[in-house]
Amino acid sequence: MSTETDISTTASRTDLPTPGARIGLTDAELGRPGAAVLHGVDLEAAPGEILTVVGPSGCGKSTLLRTLAGLLPALAGQVTQDGRPLTGPGADRALVFQEDALLPWRTARANVELPLAIRGLGRAERRATAEQWLERVGLAGLERQLPHRLSGGQRQRVQLARALAGQPRAVLMDEPFGALDAQTRAGMQQLLVEVLRGTGATVVFVTHDVDEALFLGDRVALLGAGALTGIRTVPRPRERDARADPATVALRHDILESLGPRTS
Amino acid sequence: MTTVTAPAAMEAPAGPAPARRTARLRPVVRALSLLAALGLWQLLTTLDIQLWLRFDQFPSVADVAREFGQRLGDGAYWQDVTDSLRRIVTGFLLAAVLGVAAGVAVGRSRWAADLIGPVLEVLRPVPAIALVPVAILLFPSNEQGIVFITFTAAFFPVLVATRHAVRALAPVWEEAVLTMGGGRWRVLASVVLPGALPGIFGGLSVGIGVSWICVISAEMISGEYGIGYRTWQDYTVIDYAGVFTGIVSIGLLGWLTSTVVELLGRRLTHWLPRREGSATS
Fold first, then answer.
1. Chain A window 156-175: which residues touch B at a Cβ cutoff of 8 Å?
2. Per-residue pLDDT tens for B120-174?
3. Which residue in chain A has the smallest CA separation from B268?
4. Which CATH code, of 3.40.50.720, 3.30.420.480, 3.40.50.300, 1.10.3720.10, is assigned to B61-268?
5. Does B171 contact A at CB distance below 8 Å?
6. Is B182 part of the contact surface with chain A (CB cutoff 8 Å)?
7. Based on the structure, what is the number of domains in chain A?
8. What local confidence, expressed as pLDDT, does residue A237 receive?
9. In chain B, where are the structural domains located?
10. Does A226 lie in the same domain as A120?
11. A196 CA: distance to closest CA in chain B (Å)
12. A95:B179 CB<8 A
């Protein structure tokens, strides 16, 4: 069913400062003890790749991401990074949440400075780096605002800046634009593509929006009914006009078909 | 602070100007409220009202003011004030530090909850003032006993408020810091303590109030000097103006210390989204 191809060569983002991580799941059972939600998952994200994961609500997308982040141990099977088993969360895998994960008592800049402080950077360097990232996500001038003064879209920009400022080797994104209106979401997708261009990070991006998955992903993994049901390669990733391409239309149809009820 | 939506919606079109005018009026209203209470007191006592409640033995506002004025010039009064303040500040600060520490430990660690939780739960319902005999047995001097009782009084409200605040923290904050490579101390310093601060200050506000109740009671029972001791002494020699001077002093000092706690809390939690001009005490 799924069209497996060697994607290690498709990474278009070369001359990268931080090499992306290769993260993988082997025959993994995921969930909380006694309540596994995913079984027999085999999945690998190649260095520098954007792998999107789509599936209906409650299919275990967030569980998959939290496992990859090291926040949840796999119930069975293996979670690996560059071939070594993962032992816990770490600075090399940043997580971007759908819900508001900014610390509300820290200004936008202080939020972005947090991973830098954890890495032990000095005050001046921290501040400069944070301001650079905030400018890159289009928030210059809002550095000193508290999160509750920012809009939902602006808060997700700060989250993005905070995740990337720590120079992670992998960015795990849990429906980061799910709560935004359609127009803001399209803008955020574009912004994500632009800011990722400068990094070499591997991205695993979870969404329930098939169009978002097709736009952002080099490959799309399909989740459903407690298992990984397929992986598709996207013909023209991150090109807006690829949407009308017959190949994309066919792939979109194929994905909806395998995700949705058989009757549709 | 309005929970009913309809009046709030009706207020909204009025705009900011009337709101500002009401805000300017508020200190005036507060002062008037205080003056009205004093006026009522003066009226009830000078008219020697006896309507089941008997005010004929009460000193009037003027009597108390005269007595208060005299005591303010007396070194013994200030000795009492500083003694009581020293006791309450020592006890309260100890309670704040240990209450937050124990609350965080119990709220964060299952081991701590199992090891010290049951002991704390059994001790918690005991009124601090009931510990006077214990304090007398435990400590070499009354002074330390009074501080201990004051400490115990504030400790439990702080502990309980901290535990609740810690358990109510959004898990994503901690997860975010963990995925930035932060360890447990970083989580404690950057997430748990700042995030729990609004709740902790709720406990501190309650705690400072209970502390006053207990420091005064303890002084009345076993103190040497202090406002509570002085008030009781005045009562035993039927100096009612003196008693009321003591009561007013306790009220003012209590108000002063809770204001300090309140202002400190507001300063440290300035990041909380607040409605402009919302209720303040």
1. 162, 166, 172
2. 989 988 888 888 888 889 999 888 999 999 999 999 999 999 999 999 999 999 9
3. A105
4. 1.10.3720.10
5. no
6. yes
7. 2
8. 81
9. 61-268
10. no
11. 18
12. yes
Which of B178, B179, B184, B193 to probe by mutation at the A interface, max A CB count within 10 Å? B179
Q: Are residues A195 and A240 in the same domain?
A: yes
Across the interface, of B173, B179, B181, the residue whose CB is closest to A119 is B181
Arithmetic mean of pLDDT, B248-259: 93
How many beta-carbon pairs below 8 A join chains A and B? 68
Digit-coded pLDDT (tens) for A64-107:
999 999 999 888 888 888 888 888 888 889 999 888 899 999 99
| Partner-chain residue, chosen from A69, A105, A118, that has the shortest CB–CB distance to B194 | A105
Residue of chain A with shortest Cα separation from B272: A105
Whether the CB-CB separation of A34 and A23 falls below 8 Å is answered with no
Domain that holds residue A62: 18-92+170-264
A5 occurs within a structural domain: no
Q: Which of A128, A152, A167 is the last residue of a domain?
A: A167
Residue A24 and residue A143 in one domain = no
Q: A100 vs B172: CB contact, 8 Å cut-off?
A: yes
pLDDT of residue A146: 92
Which residue out of B169, B174, B180, B193 would a mutagenesis test of the A interface target, given it has the greatest number of A Cβ atoms within 10 Å? B180
Assigned domain for A11 exists: no
Q: Name the token pair of B43.
A: 């009226």
Q: Residue B263: what residue type?
A: L
Q: Which residues, including other chains, have CB under 8 Å from residue A41's CB and lie 6 or more apart? A: A25, A27, A28, A29, A30, A64, A77, A227, A228
A115, A135, A167: which is the final residue of a domain? A167
